[in-house]
Structures are given as C-alpha cells and as structure tokens.
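in:
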C-alpha cells in the first residue's frame, strides 16, 4: 500500500467528491454526460491536435475524439448506459453519423458554457 492510499484510508484527505458534470439530450432520448473540468495539460493537447498535422480533416476528427475521451462521463443510447472510458471510446468509434453529430453539437455547447476560451471542434 502506497503513501497516498494510506492517507485516504486514514481519512486525512476527506471524502472524494465527484466532479461536476452537464447532461445533453438528443431527440431520440439519448443522453451524454460531460465533465465540467479539463486540466490545462489536456487543453494544450487538444489545441495541438486540432491545429496539428498536414491533413486538416484527420486532425479535426482526432481532436474531437480526444475531447470526447477526456470529457465524457457516460452516454446512454436506446436505454443502454455506457460508462467506462474504454466502452465510451469504443461506442464513439462505432457511432452513426447522427450520433457523432449529436456528440459534436454537445461538445460545442459544453465548451461554450464551460470553456469559452477553447476553440470548438
């Protein structure tokens, strides 16, 4: 057991509070929950990915995926909730055109509300 684990067991850090999140719904009843926190390093990685590379479309697609990966908490489609990071990324990669559009629109709205200094995908 490491030092941090011992401190948490002892309760010296207090209770772990979940990060704030926002939910976005689509017309079909799906719901995407996104974190309201994004570390500076992740913001820099997103900006570099969005503006990097020779192929603008590939950079845009990868930047959108990276932002989804960092912010998504859960995604409910047709009553099926996806909550782990691995499942979320897999579900995003096999999403339909309409589902990807919903994710992009949700990410844009989320950035506008929570991270106005960031460029939206």
């Amino acid at each position: 057991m490491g030092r941090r684990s011992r401190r948490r067991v002892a309760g010296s850090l207090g209770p772990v509070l979940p990060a704030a999140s926002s939910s976005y719904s689509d017309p079909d009843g799906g719901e995407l929950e996104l974190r309201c926190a994004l570390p500076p390093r992740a913001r820099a990685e997103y900006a570099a990915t969005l503006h990097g590379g020779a192929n603008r479309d590939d950079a845009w697609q990868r930047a959108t995926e990276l932002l989804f990966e960092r912010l998504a908490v859960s995604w409910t489609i047709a009553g099926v909730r996806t909550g782990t990071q691995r499942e979320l990324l897999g579900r995003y990669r096999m999403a339909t055109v309409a589902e990807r559009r919903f994710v992009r629109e949700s990410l844009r709205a989320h950035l506008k509300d929570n991270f106005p200094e960031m460029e939206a995908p």
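note: The chain has one domain: 19-114.
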